[in-house]
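Lab manual, section 2.4: Encoding a predicted structure.

Procedure: take the sequence of the chain (371 residues), apply the prediction step described in section 2.3, and record the output as structure tokens. A sample record is shown.
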Amino acid sequence: MAKSFMFIKILHFFNNHKSNFINTFQLSETIPLINFSSTNIDLKIMFPYTESLRSKNMGTVLITGGAGFIGSHLSDRFLKEGWDVIVLDNLLTGSSNNISHLIGKEKFKFIKYDVTDYLFFKENIDLILHFACPASPFDYAQHPIHTMKVDSLGTLNTLGLAKNKKARYLFASTSEIYGSPEQHPQKEDYWGNVNPVGPRSVYDEAKRFSEAMCMAYFREHNIDIRIARIFNTYGTRMRLLDGRVIPTFIHQALKNQSITIFGDGSQTRSFCFVDDMVEGLYNFATKDGLNGEVVNLGNTEEHSIKFLAEEIIKLTDSSSDIINHDLPEDDPPVRQPDILKANRLLGYSPEISLSDGLKKIIPWFKERKDG
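Recorded output:
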């Protein structure tokens, strides 16, 4: 009797709130109309993602932010390797276009949902990759509070899920946790030099907080945690106008507009092509015996921003000139990963040079320059 009463209460709640509920989840599948007054209801119709997705060969991976730039490439890689892939993304900065080629595949599931809300999955999950977060300075300036929520509440929720499912967990951290570094190149044992109240702090400190939370779950709950500190990455599926330097410069060059450099262009970055980044991330996520490890991933090839602008102008055969604007507050003067640890643990060694990588992506951006 008590179970029947509780079931009726649940049905009554859904009946009163079903339109808001459906709008909130917006699953990739079309949800059929349901007679909520009926007691003969199969809740699996409402929650199609609770059916088992466990692969016979590999396992099931949940990728938050999986419709984003790097997340979508990871989805491709895990599917290629035989995993069942569940992508969770609210599409704030991600795009369904990045995963449209995967919709309908037997081992792929997309759920439009905000990771800062409560998470529940009935099926087994073997691996969680937490990649949800606005990642460009433009995006986290536009969405500062959500940026902090996704790497606090979102991290807490996904860690709780990992604990419940006994899943391995990889957190997508960033080179920005090093701030304006006083060590160069940056090693994993460097604690960083971050302004905790500056305009970039919403991203930098959220990532640092998430790292601390990951290690707390590792120490207290013995969860298999890995933290990847991702340095500047570029490739196809970046948004043309997301504010990051490579798509911005390519867009300006293709339009023969002035290339905008902040500062004098002497500040340096190390740019990693997305294929090399995905290789490192996949190996880090799937290799056994790396519990609690923190690893830098990126290309050690360091270039000035001025060199980058000149190279893009040359490769696009553009007539663009270069203009300089004031440097933003807390913009780091140098950024280069020390990847000796990644090389030792993973055999990680990026292969694609900046010039070769730009040659790969410029045609892709050219097709979209008017979009």
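Check your result against the sample. The first helix runs from residue 2 to 25.
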